[in-house]
Amino acid sequence: MSDSPVNPTNQKTVGDDGSFRFNLAKWIIAFVFSVTGILGITGLFVAATTDGAKFIAIKDIFSILLPVLSAWAGTVLAFYFSRENFESAVRNTSALVRQLTSEEKLKSTPVLSVMIPIEQAVKLNLTVPETSIKLKADILDDILDEQKKERLPILDAAGVVKYMVHRSLIDRFVVQAAASGKEIANLTLADMMADKYFKEVLEGSFRALRDTANLAEAKAMIDNINICSDVFVTQDGTVKTKAIGWITNVMITQQATV
To answer: Above 60 in pLDDT, residue 3?
Structure first.
């Protein structure tokens, strides 16, 4: 059988234990305040209606019981309030430890151990002019939809990454072009590159680092550039040389999890 049945008796015991401790604390506090009040009223009554000897006896009883009652109340209050502070401190400490551990984990993870080898990556090699590459037919339909991907590196004949295309970016350009009356099916990569904003994003949304780097360095690159979501591994650490691997922001987030 896949799972063991839950013992309802055990569940009830755990719940009853917490309820019992809460009720016990509540009744101790109520008892302490009640007894203290009764003793105080009794002392005032005795002092007003009887001789001094009886009042001294009441005062002695009050002096004996009051520290005990105060200790009970103080212990109960300290338990509940200190527990809340302790739990809060534990949560904050745990969050800090996780943060430090994530950073250390990224520093100790070489990019070569997690990158997607460029030979295995879904990509587009520029073998024809950009004017011949249709955004919808060649990129959206034939590659992104077919491979169920959201981003696509475009490489030149030498294996150098020229552009980084995200589906959301293409969708935005297509909507903008359609609004100006252009035929969606005829839009090409060259049309997209002719727009200054989209050209800047296609060419500037990725960075490169050496094959000796670690994931913490890759994360720093992505964090420091708003439009950057991808880092390519090259032998000299520049975007002008052949890419040997690919790392995305999603991969870094997954590796940072502890």
So the answer is: no
